[in-house]
Amino acid sequence: MRKRSHRARVALAVVTAAVLSTAGCDAFGGGGGTKDSGAGVSRPSARPAPVWDRSPDSIAAVGDSITRGFDACAVLSDCPEVSWATGSDAKVDSLAVRLLGVTGAAERSWNFAVTGARMSDLPEQVAQAATRGPALVTVMIGANDACRSSARAMTSVASFRADFEESLATLRAAQPKSQVYVASVPNLKRLWSQGRSSALGKEVWKLGVCPSMLGDADDLTSAATRRREKVQQRVEAYNAVLKDVCAKDRRCRFDRNAVFDYRFDTEQLSHWDWFHPGRGGQARLAEIAYRTVTAERP
């Protein structure tokens, strides 16, 4: 009797070991799946919710004159109603209107951009925007860092990076979950090549519109060409900074140079200065932003 009892215990141990071996780590809860209590079938764990919300419910815009709609409606004047980011103009169909609707855009979008702002001004704008608790912050800035009195006066790439990093750090300290859409700096050399076809435009440029790129618009000497190329290279370096810094923040999306690459023509430029976007240009900027914000993948 004792021998049969001993053999029974041995047999039970062997069967138990075989069952555990077949079940593997899941038998101890270490297989990363969830056990079905009835059938013993392993099911994958629930996936975490995606970090990027493609339909944010409030927007704060920061940046420079482009986001303020400068020279889009009248000479030397802001026109925020046609802003690509937060404007109400039906022809522009701003990012805010596309995402929130007309009423939602009026109630839950705010424009903190300032005409003439450079990257060094962005941390303060972001701090103001953060007080609204926006689900999305739009950033378009950098043209004024390149558009200086001369190529030598342009903002250094190192300073541009430091101020952008400070801006994102400021936002994260106040609003850790706010999303950020970053537009690339426009192609200033293309604006020069398009705008110089207008005699009136060139006269306006002489008043001091982006002298580093647009000064002496018809000068095609090697010195002038090198000056414009230096400005263009600085813009490209700024865009590389925007891309790099944004990539380190999982709630930030860069437009992959979509604004820089867009081939604006004279019909989309302000006919007050042949430099800033007019209503048509603002509409194109809104399209690019909407496409980036609502894409499934960055």
Our Rg estimate from Cα atoms comes to 28 Å
The structure class reads alpha/beta
Distance between the termini: 73 Å
**Sequence of strands across the biggest β-sheet:** 4-3-5-6-7
Question: How many H/I helices?
Answer: 12
Which bin fits the share of residues in helices? 40-55%
- The coarse silhouette is globular
What is the total tally of β strands? 7
Mean pLDDT: 87
Strand content: 5-15%
Written as H for each helix and E for each strand, in order along the chain, the element string is HEEEHHEHEHHEHHHHEHH
Largest sheet: 5 strands, parallel
Uncertain runs: 1-40
Considering the chains and any ligands shown, give keywords for the structure.
single chain; alpha/beta; two-stranded antiparallel sheet; globular
What can you see in these coordinates?
- By secondary structure, the protein is an alpha/beta fold.
- Helices cover 46% and strands 9% of the residues.
- The protein contains twelve helices and seven strands.
- It has helices spanning 2-23, 65-68, 95-108, 122-130, 143-146, 157-174, 188-195, 199-205, 211-214, 222-247, 258-261, 279-294, and strands at residues 33-35, 42-44, 59-63, 109-111, 136-140, 179-182, 252-254.
- The chain has a five-stranded parallel beta sheet with strand order 4-3-5-6-7, sandwiched between helices.
- Strand 1 and strand 2 (42-44) form a beta hairpin.
- Helix 4 (122-130) packs parallel to helix 6 and helix 6 runs parallel beside helix 10.
- It starts with a helix and ends with a helix.
- 42% of the residues are buried.
- Mean pLDDT is 87; it is low at 1-40.
